[in-house]
Amino acid sequence: MPTPSEVIAMGVVMPLADGGILLLRYLARRRTGKYGIDDYLILFAYITSLSLGALLIVGAVRYDYGLNGPATTAGSGYIAYGKGLVHTKRITNIIDFIQFWPLGASKLSCIFFYRRIFRGQAFDIVSWTTSFVVLAWMLASFFLILLQCGKHVDWLWTSAEHIAANCMSGVKIALFYSSVDVVVDIVIIIIPIYWVSKTLTSRTKKFLVCCVFLFGALAVLSSVVRLVVFIVIYPGHNSTPNQYAWLTDVAYFSMLEIGLGIIAACLPTLGPLLTDAQRHRFRNTVGAFFPGNRGSQISGFQPYLSFRGLRPKPLLSGSVSGTPFVLKESTETRPDLETFVMGDIERALGHSDRIPTARDGAHVSSDI
């Protein structure tokens, strides 16, 4: 169980860290000149997470987060009903009500960030389906917690004995939303990695981009930790001699997951803050692991369209049926994985084009 000082530190440090990374994200967006739905979603996630940080601090300073609880009622195994426990339970339940909104918003922010980059019917189906699953998870989890005792929401901070006799099982609800949380996080990480593997580019660039997206593993790690905590502490929480311990754990690890989720959603967007020299060094460092890679050559090239229906503007040379050709040079900048991973994705996507994949009709051959 975290101590009161550790709970306060979580309520202070995590929002500050999230605020710092969010500020960097918006500075990067200003350099690329455009905000999107993903930026507003992550801002909403941060604003709602601030209330959770405040509740953690209040719970540790004024109430009983991190403290040892009173003795259990003799023979029952349930905690004695007391004023301190009521207030601590009330704060924890408010955290439970709020937590799904920043968690869901940060997940949706990741998905809409992907939609800036990738295109295609299959990707649209997967991304929209995942978005609806996240939204359904948010609403279902919120109302399951809120209506756990039917219309008697205030019963949630009565004695554990009264809750067990009159309400749905909190154990099953917690394990449900935590398990789905982990699965959704894993899917959100897999989505870009799969589509990057299908893009028309070299292995070096694919590796670079996958490294960027794997920052999302932070969110998966924190959601797994919380699931493990729930599996360990929830089944026997009613009979533990220190009820405050599990209440503290629920609040503490919820804030940890939300904070890391916001950081994970922001990290892939910070590339524009790198200088050209830093990008060059990074490229050379990673390129050392792929000494045989000399870039990609496109054959059978087929121009790709903007997802807004813009007319294609060919950029590259190639060949059709063995006959070489050179397409007219365009002043329009097209996106590729290198410009994305090195931080110029918004500049490259100024026309709302997205990265083509093998499904778009082109083929790539590389030296490795």
TrEMBL record:
It is found in: Membrane. InterPro entries: Rhodopsin_dom_fungi, SAT4-like. Its main location: membrane. It holds the Pfam family Fung_rhodopsin. It comes from the Eukaryota. GO terms for cellular component: membrane. Keywords: Membrane, Transmembrane, Transmembrane helix. It is a multi-pass membrane protein. Residues 24-274 form the Rhodopsin domain. The chain crosses the membrane at residues 6-28, 40-61, 94-114, 126-147, 174-195, 207-233, 253-274. The keyword Membrane applies. The keyword Cytoplasm does not apply. Belongs to the SAT4 family. This is Rhodopsin domain-containing protein. It comes from Viridothelium virens. The lineage of its organism: Eukaryota, Fungi, Dikarya, Ascomycota, Pezizomycotina.
